[in-house]
Amino acid sequence: MPQKKKYSSLLNNKNISRWYHNISRGSKTTADVYLRRLGSFCNSLNTTPSKLINMDPQTLYNLILDYITSMEKQNYTGSYIQSSIKAVKSWLSHNNIHIINKIKIKGAYDAPTIQNERVPTQDELRRIFLSADKKARAVVVLMAHSGLRPQSLGNYNGTDGLRIKDFPEMKIYEDEISFEKIPTMVIVRKELSKARFQYFTFLSEEGCSYLKDYLEERMRKGEKLHPDSPIITPKVHRKPFIRTVNIGDAARGAIRKAGFSWRPYVLRAFFDTQMMLAESKGYVMRDYRQFWMGHKGDIEHRYTLNKGMLPLSVVEDMRRAYKKAQRFLQTTAESEMDSEKVKLLFKKELLLAVGYSQEEIEEMDLSEVSEDEFQKIVKEKLEERKNNHSSQKVVTVSELERFLEEGWEFVATLPGEKVVIKRSE
After folding, report:
1. Which of 108, 147, 161, 256 could serve as a FRET partner for 248 with CA atoms 20 to 30 Å apart?
2. How many C-beta neighbours within 10 Å does residue 203 have?
3. Does a cis peptide bond (omega within 30 degrees of 0) precede residue 183?
4. How many whole angstroms separate alpha carbon 279 and alpha carbon 285?
5. The whole model's pTM is what?
6. Do 257 and 368 sit in the same domain of this protein?
7. How many Cβ atoms sit within 10 Å of the Cβ of residue 135?
8. Same domain, residue pair 151 and 178
9. To 5 degrees, how large is the angle CA 147–CA 149–CA 154?
10. How confident is the model over 26-63, as pLDDT tens digits?
């Protein structure tokens, strides 16, 4: 019998139900865990929650100590025992009963399951990506490259999770996904934030490509995406959103297929560790890293006071910092990933072709020039050439020698076995 159902009968008691729902308003997960722990505690000692609150303080204190001794003899971890005692204390506190005497639990704050755990290397993360299907790959990259918690992708009950609208720079055109800006912004609403405040992070170029693949696959299968559509869908559509436990299952499955035994949370630890490394190299401010992790800090304070708004200059500075730091996150070779460099190279070659000199191009910061501005620059140069009867032209490589013999001069190389030449003055 699942433990949730095993102890759900306790909620028939109105006082226990009040306690449970009061905790649940803060965290449904914590409420369910506390209910199970309280039920297990009482079951092991052959008592009930109602009997606990009617015991005299010394008897109650002795009972708790006896429970701890018994659990330690059964080799339960200190952290598990501590969790049980916290649940019992919460129930007692609800009834205005407080344990004054000290309670010692050996290893209460140890984490034996993660003591020998380390974060993956970028090569190991690549293996995890390659071992995953498109859905699991999207889950893994959102945790590892955006630092998201599993519950931000899908909450405990499967009633909410990351949505299409939480990617404000992602656009849907018929059956194709595109991003206006990369790295792209990811908004974590306060309902999905552990600390209960809204914040945002970014997703890398590699991450955008994986998310695009996953969403376009869903559209090819007939799904109509809209702003409230979940980013990650459940396997069985009993609920609109995937549950936190199933997010963990998807990530864990990919990790196991790659041959590793890590817990899913190691993916978020990867993001934190790699951003710390980027910080040490001067690419990222500490405040930025804390904010992207969903931790409280100076930027979170400003963001909250301004009701979810930061100056555009700050947002773009954060984006630039993330872009510089994404080399510590991405697992795909630079030559495969850096499409921005390819675009810049193409723009430079096009400017050479229409008549700009190498010196003029070097003075331009093409990375900051919008598409509309670039088209205007090209158009103006073409008009200038037309009015000045410019003699610059594009020829094939095979024709180059003949033109050089006729007195033309080489200007630049273009893609597709073509070159730019001009008539000697």
Report:
1. 108
2. 28
3. yes
4. 6
5. 0.69
6. no
7. 17
8. yes
9. 130
10. 888 899 999 999 999 999 999 999 999 999 999 999 99
In whole angstroms, give the CA distance from residue 374 to residue 354: 12
**Is the domain of 89 the same as that of 169?**
no
| 34/100 Cα distance (integer angstroms) | 21
| pLDDT of 294 over the 70 cut | yes
Mean of all residue pLDDT scores within the chain: 86
Name every residue whose Cβ is closer than 8 Å to that of residue 86 and which is 6 or more positions away in sequence: 34, 37
Residues of the domain holding 153:
120-326
Q: Say if 179 falls within a structural domain.
A: yes
Return contacts of 406-411, CB within 8 angstroms, 24+ apart: 411/352
Domain boundary among 58, 93, 128: 93
**Cα torsion 292, 295, 297, 300: sign:** positive
User: Within a domain: residue 366?
Assistant: yes
Report the pLDDT value the prediction gives residue 1, as an integer from 0 to 100: 38
Residue type, 139: V
Q: Which two tokens stand for residue 145?
A: 């490259």
Name the pLDDT band for 301 (thresholds 50, 70, 90).
low
Q: What are phi and psi of 14, to 5 degrees?
A: -60, -35
362 versus 324: which is more confidently predicted?
A: 324
Q: Give the neighbor-by-neighbor strand order of the sheet with 408-414.
A: 393-396, 418-423, 408-414
Considering the domain architecture, whether residues 177 and 313 belong to the same structural domain is answered as: yes
User: Do residue 13 and residue 55 come from a single domain?
Assistant: yes
Mean pLDDT within 138-144: 97
Assigned domain for 103 exists? no
Rounded to 5°, angle at Cα 282 from 276 and 287: 60
113 has a pLDDT exceeding 60: no
Which residues does 307 contact at the CB level (< 8 Å), separation at least 6?
none
Both tokens of 93, joined, read 């506190």
pLDDT (0 to 100) of residue 335: 43
Residue type at 305 in one-letter notation: L
